[in-house]
């Protein structure tokens, strides 16, 4: 069975950015320790999405 088409595609930068903003907004701009891991994962995903946009533009 082939993988689903969306399974390997990175999410768009704008979507990840919106998730980061929502996370920060939910915690009043100051992340408690338990939310920092989610923030770090989102930042890594955002960086990969930005890199993908740069490579795609080239």
Give me the number of helical elements: 2
Write the H/E string, N to C. HH
Number of strands: 0
Low-confidence regions: none
Summarize the biggest pleated sheet: none
Percent of residues in helices: 55-70%
* Shape summary: elongated
- Provide the β-strand percentage band: under 5%
Radius of gyration: 14 Å
* Structural class estimated from helices and strands: mainly alpha
Q: What's the end-to-end separation, in Å?
A: 33 Å
Q: Mean pLDDT, as a whole number?
A: 84
Write up what this structure looks like.
Helix content is 67%, strand content 0%. The chain contains two helices and no strands. It has helices at 13-26, 33-57. The longest helix has 25 residues, at 33-57. It starts with 12 loop residues before the first helix and ends with a helix.
Q: What is the element layout, followed by pairings?
A:
Blueprint: H1 13-26, H2 33-57
Helix pairs in contact: 1-2
Give a summary of the structure in a few sentences.
Helix content is 67%, strand content 0%. The protein has helices spanning 13-26, 33-57.
Task: Name its key features.
elongated, mainly alpha, 2 helices, 58 residues
């Amino acid at each position: 069975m082939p993988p689903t088409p969306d399974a390997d595609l990175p999410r768009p930068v704008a979507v990840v950015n919106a998730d980061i903003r929502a996370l920060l907004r939910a915690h009043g701009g100051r992340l408690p320790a338990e939310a920092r891991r989610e923030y770090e994962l989102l930042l890594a995903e955002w960086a990969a999405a930005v890199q993908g946009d740069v490579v795609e533009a080239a």
